[in-house]
Amino acid sequence: MAxxxxxxxxxxxxxxxxxGWVSSCVTTVxxxxxxxxxxxxxxxxxxxxxWQVCIAREEGAVECRAHGSFLALPPELRVSRLLMCLxxxxxxxxxxxxxxxxxxxxSCQDQPGxxxxxLLAGAxxxxxxxxxxxxxxxxxxxxxxLDFWDDTVPDIVPRWEFGEATFLxxxxxAFLAAGGLLLACSARSVRAAxxxxxACRQPxxxxxxxxxxxPHPKNADLVI
Length: 224
What we know:
The chain is of the alpha+beta class. It has helices at 2-29, 75-100, 112-148, 164-193, and strands at 34-37, 44-48, 52-57, 62-66, 161-162. A five-stranded antiparallel β-sheet has the order 4-3-2-1-5. Helix 1 runs antiparallel to helix 2 (75-100), helix 1 packs parallel to helix 3 and helix 3 (112-148) packs antiparallel against helix 4. The chain is elongated and about 70 Å long. The N and C termini lie far apart (72 Å). This is Claudin. Belongs to the claudin family.
């Protein structure tokens, strides 16, 4: 029963971790972190990501332009670039380490302690990837809310709003966190289910030269 639950927890954790890692990679690449609709020209929709700004027109044409200098970007975009790249690397590393520690993986079958450490290391890396994803997405969303409700900006000025990548990044962080938690819980159950080492036993007494052992009677009569 415990082994079945452990296998299901590991499979679910790996599935969530991989889904979160893929979603995090998509969030890093797509230019949909912010969106802007112009009241004067409703045929154009501006979108912004970590790497470029795009303009989508009504006829279906999309024109994208990369950001200028890295140092010229706002602080939240600069930090978000670094953290999202770090999250992608940690997610991949965690998935590889956790895969090597799964019960169905044939490597290191005779070393359960090593497999448990690999599983815990993978869970920790996936959890760190979740934090590295949620932090920049939430920071950009927070600044977007502040700019949207800034009273010092005239109402006629267009305001940036949340893009689809913001919500995708939150889902990616949640998937990574849930996957890392499941993997860590399954690793703890592996430790609890490991049987204790057998007790040492004394080796049998050595046999005689002929292979047979003739016991001497304790109360034998003496022959004179």
